């Protein structure tokens, strides 16, 4: 049973996905970056106004409705964030737990 701080990290990815759907943040002991964790964003199915960067990237007009489907986001070691897709190792590991 892996421990990280006072929390237990011995769960599989199915458990991690359930926690994400409940609004929790999760991480793995196998990740060597302090503060790294994953969160689920519900997206904006009804749409939000496209900002300048989004409009320029996707060829939209600034303020045009831009819909976003749900996605997972990773907080990286340097504090920045990125959209995230689990690797096969992430999916098959048993070292998931709640993020601090």
Structure notes:
The chain has 100 residues and is an alpha+beta fold. Helices cover 21% and strands 36% of the residues. The protein has a three-stranded antiparallel β-sheet, with no helix packed on it. It has a two-stranded antiparallel sheet with strand order 1-2. The protein has a two-stranded antiparallel ribbon with strand order 3-9.
Strands, helices and their partners?
Elements lengths: L1 E3 L2 E3 L3 H9 L4 E3 L8 E5 L2 E6 L2 H7 L6 E4 L2 E5 L5 E4 L3 H5 L3 E3 L2
Antiparallel strand pairs: 1-2, 3-9, 4-7, 5-6, 7-8
Which H/E pattern describes the elements?
Answer: EEHEEEHEEEHE
Rg is 16 Å
Report the sheet-strand fraction.
Answer: 35-45%
Helix and strand content put the structural class at: alpha+beta
Runs with pLDDT <50, length 5+?
none
**Number of helical elements:** 3
The geometry reads as elongated
Distance between the termini: 18 Å
Largest sheet: 3 strands, antiparallel
What distinguishing features does this structure have?
100 residues, alpha+beta, 3-stranded antiparallel sheet, two-stranded antiparallel sheet, 3 helices, 21% helix, elongated
Please outline what is shown here:
The chain is α+β, with helices and mostly antiparallel strands. 21% of the residues lie in helices and 36% in strands.
């Amino acid at each position: 049973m892996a421990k990280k701080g006072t929390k237990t990290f011995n769960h599989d990815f199915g458990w991690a996905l359930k926690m994400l759907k409940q609004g929790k943040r999760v991480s793995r002991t196998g990740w060597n970056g302090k503060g790294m964790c994953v969160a689920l964003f519900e997206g904006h199915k009804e749409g939000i106004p496209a900002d300048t960067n989004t409009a320029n990237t996707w060829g939209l007009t600034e303020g045009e409705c831009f819909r976003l489907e749900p996605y997972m986001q990773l907080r990286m070691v340097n504090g920045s964030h990125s959209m995230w897709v689990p690797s096969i190792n992430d999916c098959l590991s048993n070292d998931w737990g709640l993020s601090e």
